[in-house]
């Protein structure tokens, strides 16, 4: 049986959506080898173009669209789910030109949104996403952009919201925010792409039906083990667009890629023809 490598993030929305597939609850006519890495590492792996199915930040699409297409299922996209720019003290947007801002990777959608919203803020430091919250709490960093589980707990840690970057995007475009999702290499056989799409949809269905049974697997990769935080994370990032990007989701993705500078990018989402 052919082996296919799939690379995902350890975030609850990915381990929820793909968990049943990882655990063998879904049958698929190919052997899958699973790799879990933080989103910036995944982005850098996608730039090499070797992994057949990989989760990326959609901000990376301008650099990889000629080699990859988005799967129509499995995306993190929606409203009220964007990265949050927070600070260890009250800051105004005008203060950002003088403050170093910690960001979860150069190729992330969080960085693209920050760059678009605050072009004058040039003091940027790129770190792993889970390093930002501790740095803000300890005073090592004054400002940072939070993603994943961290965006749900910053208030309890005494931090201050400077700008909701997802809200900024929605105000600018009127569209949901496309954060990231699985992409598949264009050169894979169409039948295999179809089988993968069906398998991920079935995995998502089973995840919803058997969440209590799946929870230990999700926790084994999560940064925050609280069921409340994990459930909030999943309900925020797993929605109707996760099941199918649809026309609006595809328009949002095209708009993000356009604003990132790839005006000629096309045919971004795989679909059976």
Please explain how this structure is put together.
GO terms for molecular function: carbon-carbon lyase activity. It is an enzyme of class 4 (lyase). Belongs to the MqnA/MqnD family. MqnD subfamily. The protein has helices spanning 12-22, 39-48, 61-64, 109-117, 132-138, 165-173, 190-209, 211-219, 227-237, 240-243, 246-259; strands at residues 3-8, 31-36, 53-57, 68-70, 76-78, 84-87, 101-103, 124-126, 143-146, 160-164, 177-185. It has 273 residues and is α/β, with parallel strands linked by helices. Strand 7, helix 4 and strand 8 (124-126) form a beta-alpha-beta unit. The two termini are 26 Å apart. The mean pLDDT is 92.
SSE blueprint and pairings:
Layout: E1 3-8, H1 12-22, E2 31-36, H2 39-48, E3 53-57, H3 61-64, E4 68-70, E5 76-78, E6 84-87, E7 101-103, H4 109-117, E8 124-126, H5 132-138, E9 143-146, E10 160-164, H6 165-173, E11 177-185, H7 190-209, H8 211-219, H9 227-237, H10 240-243, H11 246-259
Parallel strand pairs: 1-2, 1-3, 7-8, 7-9
Antiparallel strand pairs: 3-11, 4-11, 5-11, 6-9, 6-10
Helix pairs in contact: 1-7, 1-8, 4-6
CATH fold label of the largest domain:
D-Maltodextrin-Binding Protein, domain 2
- Detail the poorly predicted runs: none
Count of discrete structural domains: 2
Order of helices and strands: EHEHEHEEEEHEHEEHEHHHHH
Within CATH, the superfamily of the largest domain carries the name Periplasmic binding protein-like II
Radius of gyration: 18 Å
State the helicity in percent bands.
Answer: 25-40%
Give the N-terminus to C-terminus distance in angstroms.
26 Å
* Name of the top-level CATH class of the largest domain: Alpha Beta
Instruction: Characterize the main sheet.
Output: 6 strands, mixed
Q: Mean pLDDT, nearest integer?
A: 92
Structural class per helix/strand content? Answer: alpha/beta
Number of helices: 11
How many runs of DSSP E, i.e. beta strands? 11
Give the overall shape, derived from the CA principal axes. Answer: globular
Please name the CATH architecture of the largest domain.
Answer: 3-Layer(aba) Sandwich
Could you tell me the strand content as a percent range? 15-25%
